[in-house]
Design goal:
Order of helices and strands: EHEEEHEHEHHHHHHHHHHHHHHEE
Distance between the termini: 68 Å
Number of helices: 17
Number of strands: 8
Structural class: alpha/beta
Number of domains: 3
CATH class of the largest domain: Alpha Beta
Strand order of the largest sheet: 1-4-3-2-5-6
Shape: flat
Low-confidence stretches: none
Strand content: 5-15%
CATH superfamily of the largest domain: Ribonuclease H-like superfamily/Ribonuclease H
Amino acid sequence: MSIRHPHRWVAHQHELEAIIDELLAVDRYAIDTEFHRERTYFPSLALVQLAWGDELVLVDPLAVDVRSLGRLFDSDVEAVFHAAQQDLDVLTHTVGSIPRCFFDTQLAGGFVGYGTPSLVALLNGELGVSPAKGDRLTDWLRRPLTDAQRDYAAADVAYLLEVRDLLIAQLDELGRRDWVTQASDELRSRPVSGTAPEDAWTRLKDVRGLRPRPRAVAQAVAAWRERTAMERNIPVRQVLPDLAVLGIAQRQPSNPKELSQARGVDERFSRGKVAAQILDAVEEGKRAEPPPARSGGDELERDLRPAVTLISAWVSQVAKSEKIDTSMLATRADLIAFLAGDPEARLRFGWRRELLGADIDRLLHGAAALTFDRGAGLRLVDVAAD
């Protein structure tokens, strides 16, 4: 059964400006976006949902200039999202900024025992509300939207402020509100689409096995592909498939014939202007200093590698006892970075150091040990000094 949420459709600039003026006078508001990026490199904003007090509006970005939201985002009014990362990406590109103050209910849920919750899981768990499922493949850019589409979009923000208040109470009881602030700062600092083309190679599957020189070629070709996709605003896979990037990196062709023989390269990419650009990128990669390998353990000292497996098991135990999602607490890459001495490793800072980092240091220096307690799992114990 669908739950209707009274809302207004906003398709005139003066209406949006009046809403922003009203929002500047409140403490917080809920926000969500609908967008598409299947056919483009940059996300195409299709809808902005806003809720505060007894108000809920659906803003049509095809009819108004959403850059006006920048003056709201620059204020101290708190924006409440659920799973904000993709929303922050699309708002960066369409508004030109993101809210200076924001709260992510998904992040907060991860600190009070929900793992990495969906909005439905939070609504059900905190409010006993189960909103109707919508069409996940709906075309949000088509106008007019149906009543069912509008209701589905409205449901995404209708309860967020209420859920936020319930989560804040639990975080305060656990003393973890500051942890959410730290996690939000991490989220804010993550690169959005269209930044750092030189890092695009790290998102390739199977890139971990490349040797240094092929890795440098993969970096150069992937960066060329990323910049080309940005310039043409098309998905990177339409510029050059991942398999072709890896095939070119392995073969390191120096002419069109060799390029055509690389795995994943068909006629579209082995001749003409595109082929010349790819070969230029290959030469650039051959001359460049190879980038460090992706974290996978190969660069870790051999005598420390067993520690990754052991500490990973303990991390899972800590996550369970503290009711925190394991992937939020520490990934394998986090552990490797810490053990390898990376000064920027996340386990060296903030709430992660408080829960894990300091104790891992003690383990590595022999000041603590892990023991198995039947029924309680792995347990950290002090080691008596000689």
